[in-house]
Specification:
139 residues; alpha+beta; four-stranded antiparallel β-sheet
Length: 139
């Protein structure tokens, strides 16, 4: 009977040079940010995220992981930005994600569009991240 051989050893220099690859990477913010598409009760809208922490949160939400889930930001009326199809956008510098927000900023994208939503911040409680894409600066 032969003895089992010991597993091969990896030299220390090789072990430190080996990188671990994340099988589910979260898109990193480019200089132009990322575009996150949300669904709110069957209506979709887009926000550009420029803060790397917000990009990480959006990635977690897309993957179904725990994170503050309510996007909140200042409405910019008359500027579409990345929010094609609407006459408004959300100021990327004002975006934050929260666990709880005041009810006055909850609503639907169509309510902003038709003017029935008049509060300056939009924080749809039922928003779900459905897509994340890299902003290309073309907007």
């Amino acid at each position: 009977m032969t003895k089992p051989s010991a597993p091969p050893t990896v030299p220390a220099a090789t072990a430190t040079a080996t990188a671990t690859v994340d099988p589910n990477p979260t898109p990193a913010a480019s200089p132009d940010g990322v575009i996150v598409t949300f669904d709110v009760a069957g209506e979709q809208f887009r926000i550009e995220l420029t803060d790397p922490e917000d990009v990480v949160i959006a990635g977690k939400l897309l993957d179904g992981k725990e994170a503050p889930g309510i996007p909140s930001g200042l409405i910019v009326r008359g500027e579409t930005g990345v929010n094609a199809g609407y006459s408004w956008s959300i100021d990327p510098d004002s975006v934050e994600f929260a666990d709880f927000t005041t009810e006055v900023c909850d609503g639907l994208p169509s309510q902003i569009e038709d003017g029935s939503f008049t509060y300056e911040r939009f924080c749809p409680w039922s928003a779900k991240v459905i897509a994340i894409g890299i902003a290309d600066g073309a907007e």
